[in-house]
Amino acid sequence: MVKQNSMKKAFVKLASCLCLVASVTSATAGEKIDYTKMSSQQLAEHLIFNSDGFKLDKPVQEGGTARERLVQDELQKSCSVVGNATIPADTSVKVMTMARNSYRYPEGGIKLGDWKIGRELAWSGYGFRAGHKNDDHSTTKYGPGGNCYNCHQLATDRTGGSIGPALTGYGKARGTSDAILKYTYEVIYNPHAYFPCTHMPRIGAKKLLTEEQISHVMAYLFDPESPVNK
Ligand code: HEC
Q: Using CA atoms, how far apart are residues 178 and 176, in angstroms rounded to an integer?
């Protein structure tokens, strides 16, 4: 818990700092720059936000630009304001409601797909990298991927991260009732309904994985044949 809390603090600081910096420095764009008068922080900010070194104004995969990505949405803003403090009840309710409103379910109900594809998706941390050369997902077999291993231990044939809880033996321990399938789909789709201001990405709501891909990742979690349950 101690480790998670300090990571959380670092993440929140980074997120709020990036936004502040983006708005401050964009106002100075176009002015003549005297590097010798800059502090190291100012220089770093200039190089990132104004020198075009990071190609922040190039179009990105989901539409818009990388610079626009740094602008927080409502949910992120609500969570950043809280920072390191305990989340106030009204923020929790607001964030949980936003998450619930984002849910979309597959036509025909929540089903389990192919755990082998799910494994690839859980392993892949391709993501939506942008900058000098944007990732082109049309050329990758599994698109951006789910990046689950970055934060979770799942099967034991690969080391996983510890930002999130270990999910090893997930289906074996919890069974496959409609309630647990729905819960798991919703956590993957948008975890903030259960864990307001969590660090887990909104994987469905932000279209990192399609509904069908979520069914494959869920098979990886639930299928008795999946290495997660061996
Ligand atoms: C950036 C880190 C991160 C990534 C990436 C991530 N998660 Fe999570 N996940 C978390 C955290 C943290 C929690 C615990 C919620 C909390 O306390 O904030 C969690 C919780 C969960 C839970 C609920 C666990 C329980 O005990 O009920 C499931 C299921 C889950 N994640 C599945 C996934 C899957 C599947 C993926 C990939 C598609 C994924 N996660 C990607 C961080 C992450």
A: 7
Among protein residues, the one whose CA lies closest to atom 18 of ligand 1: 198
For 15, 31, 221, the CA distances from 224, given in Å and listed in that order, are 39, 62, 9
Q: Can you read off the two tokens belonging to residue 149?
A: 């291993």
Q: What is the mean pLDDT of each run of 10 residues along the chain (230 residues)?
A: 45 41 45 86 91 90 91 95 90 98 96 97 89 85 92 95 98 98 98 97 95 98 98
Q: Which CATH homologous superfamily contains domain 90-229?
A: Cytochrome c-like domain (1.10.760.10)
- Phi, psi (deg, nearest 5) at residue 59: -60, 145
What are the CA-CA distances from residue 138 to residues 38, 89, 120, 215 (Å)? 42, 42, 16, 20
Structural domain boundaries in the chain: 2-82, 90-229
Helix axes of 74-82 and 2-26: crossing angle, nearest 10 degrees: 120
DSSP alpha helices (H): ranges in 133-194?
170-174, 178-189
Residue 152 CA to ligand 1 center (angstroms) comes to 7
Please choose from 152, 172, 210, 223 the residue to mutate so as to test ligand 1's pocket, defined by most ligand atoms within 8 A of CB.
152
